[in-house]
Amino acid sequence: MVHSGIAVTGMGIISAIGSTNEESFQALLNGKHGISRVQNFDTKHKDHILVGEIKYSNRQLAALLGITEPHNFTRTALLGALAAKAAIADAGISDVNAQRTGLISSTSVGGMDYTERYFYEYLTNPSLHPYISTHDAGDSSHKIAECLGLEGIVTTISTACSSAANAIMMGARLIKSGRLDRVIVGGTDALSKFTINGFKTLMILTDDYCRPFDNERCGLNLGEAAAYLVLESAMSLKKDGKKPLAFLRGYGNANDAFHQTASSENGEGAFLAMKKAFQAADLDPAAIDYVNAHGTATPNNDLSEGRALTRIFGDHVPVFSSTKPFTGHTLAAAAAIEAVFSILALQQGVVFPNLHFQHKMAELDLIPQTETLHRPLSNVLSNSFGFGGNCSTLIFSKA
Amino acid sequence: MKNNVFINGIGAVTAQGIWRTELFEEASELNEAVNHAQQPSYKEFIAPAMSRRMSRGIKMGIYAAQQALDEAEVTVPDAIITGTGLGCSEDSEKFLRNILDNQEEFLTPTSFIQSTHNTVAAQIALRLQCKGYNFTYVNRSISFESALLDALLQLQQGEEEHILVGGVDEVSDHTFRLLQLIEEVKASDTNETVKTSVTPGVNYGEGATFFSLGVQKTRSSYAELVDIHIQHRVDRAELPDFVAQFLERNTLAAADVDALLLGYNGDSASDSYYVAFEALFPQAASLYYKHLSGQYDACSAFGLAAAASVLQQRHIPSRLKWKDNTAPGPLKTVLLYNQLKGKDHALTLIRAC
């Protein structure tokens, strides 16, 4: 990897804690979470679970984008388009095709929010048919590309809850190989009955606020979000005389090869992903000032990740926190919003608190950062893991 | 200095049966609206108890992956990269039906667990205990080409030496019916082939095709994978420029391309691009493959297998000929072109080795 890494020149985000970078930062700084009851759709579980829901209806989101009826944008596409547009505006890009530019997006639910609404009704109601073709994961990426007017490569990654980290990695690879000058990378996922019920059957949804790394943690809060970064080549940066927000210094991906949904006891996949990221970044673990952990607050993840952190950092685990108590676990978008949070942390010199933590895990000597901490940061590591043993690590460095 | 990249092993489960030397000689043209892949016996690979819980997509993927690795004599690859348009459609549908039919009650997790798009790549990794890089691309007709591009870049740049790459999609009942409603798939009572197609939509299919790619040429090598280019939007009028830039990047002239492998699928919204593309290569032989595989998002993986086989055999089976022309010189260079309804254009260049 070319050091100091690949420049990040723009970012855009929408989650339960805000629809701009600034709103997100203020919420994180002030410990103000966005967890609430489901309001936007009907589910039997609405009084039993807490979620990180964005309180805009689809109609409001469409209005924010200036999309008029009739259209066939799913919620996943609407959220993605808003965040991607914000990212290119933040990067000061007016003509998206002026240089070789691509979009590498990611999603896990894709258009499932509409499929689950009209699955049977499609058979009898032709007026709903425009939504049939929005089911697949690629649809949201195509819609985002349409909103941006993008002509270059568009593709999508779906590796469950690590998806956006992998989209960021592939984008970096395309810049590094000289195939693209700029690339918009990230992910988008809307809340759906499908995922709520899926996680429910796995018995990893809590009816309370999630408590990552707490000994009495009892599951996750689901959330919805979208976030995108703009990555640019050194040449492109020079051409436009831009100053980067941060650098993507290294990345690593590995497979736990242990179980379709559970993480291995010793966090092998997570350990390997972090190890590869250090190699790619040409950094020692000691150079990391803050770890934005995956920290979903399921008993299995936090123990496995905790073990992996202990294995890679030894007795010197850096300050770490999970920001999932703020936003909920936003699945494919998680690594993208947490990339934005990691960059905000670097820019502002702030470690965000791990909310709701009370008791240290019995198995490990690990205590997350529970209060907002002001401290200059040079390198931040962000972890994201998913079903299928997918483990991804990104390292961001101060510009 | 970039490494060269070779296709050293192929495996597939298709509507024409599993991957074998005689596949294209024995193949028959599909004329049904929906075409299931002929399923092999999975007994050798998957324990019966597991097999019962697995969807066809997972099983086809595992089978094709193993076939490709065996042929290339690779035990555990350094990375696994797959492409799928609709992912594990059967399990997604099953879990969704259970949610809707039982009002969100009495659900079991198995179909949810297996519904994520990366299940096939994950199950292959689990089976091989492959802890390397593991990605799944899900972008309609270029899901497979995206995976192939990722693999090519990593091999060229020397990050890995052996990568397993594949494309897989399965037919699931309800999804298929919905695609018929919007005329993306032909009506069930039609009996048209890609060539005789007059009604809208395509003959739909499913399958898995995997490749073992490596940086060393071996005795099992089919061809060299030279370059891939993907672009979301190309207007028909821009097609000559799009192609010219790609050829120039690879220091080729149009006359250097001996054969084209085109994605003709019987739907005029897609096929008009192939007609325009063919016109740019008056001397090249024109081949097609979707009449043998059916149209599905990851079917371009089957196309690459067909093209690689043509280069290995140095012979074009008559079943693959779109036009009855033959390449003038020896078969050395094949250019694959795939897009769907004018979106997601992919050029893949392979060369005899």
How many angstroms separate the termini of chain B? 19 Å
Main β-sheet of chain B, in a few words? 11 strands, mixed
Quote the average pLDDT of chain B.
96
Distance between the first and last residues' Cα of chain A: 16 Å
Radius of gyration of chain B: 19 Å
CATH-assigned fold name of the largest domain in chain A: Peroxisomal Thiolase, Chain A, domain 1
What's the SSE pattern of chain A? EHEHHEHHEHEHEEHEHEHEHHEEEE
Spatial extent as radius of gyration of chain A: 20 Å
Q: What oligomeric arrangement do these chains adopt?
A: heterodimer
Can you give a write-up of this model?
The complex is a heterodimer of chains A (399) and B (353). Chain A has 399 residues and is an alpha/beta fold. Chain A contains twelve helices and 14 strands. Chain A has helices at 21-29, 58-65, 75-90, 112-118, 137-148, 163-176, 193-201, 234-240, 268-281, 299-313, 324-327, 334-348, and strands at residues 6-14, 51-52, 101-106, 154-157, 182-189, 222-223, 225-232, 246-255, 290-292, 319-321, 350-351, 373-374, 379-386, 390-398. In chain A, strands 4-3-5-7-1-8-14-13-9-10 form a ten-stranded mixed β-sheet, with helices on both faces. In chain A, helix 10 links the parallel strand 9 (290-292) and strand 10. The longest helix of chain A is centred in the first third of the chain and has 16 residues, at 75-90. Chain B is an alpha/beta fold and 353 residues long. Chain B folds into two domains: 5-214, Peroxisomal Thiolase, Chain A, domain 1; 223-351, Thiolase/Chalcone synthase (Peroxisomal Thiolase, Chain A, domain 1, 3-Layer(aba) Sandwich), CATH 3.40.47.10. Helices cover 33% and strands 21% of the residues of chain B. In chain B, strands 1, 2, 3, 4, 5, 6, 7, 8, 9, 10 and 11 form an eleven-stranded mixed β-sheet that branches. The model of chain B has no long low-confidence stretch (mean pLDDT 96). At the A-B interface, helix 4, helix 5, strand 4, helix 6 and helix 7 of A face helix 4, helix 6, strand 4, helix 7 and helix 8 of B. Chain B: It holds the Pfam family Ketoacyl-synt_2. Chain B: Keywords: Transferase. Chain B: Residues 34-177 form the Beta-ketoacyl synthase-like N-terminal domain. Chain B: This is 3-oxoacyl-ACP synthase. Chain A: Keywords: Transferase.
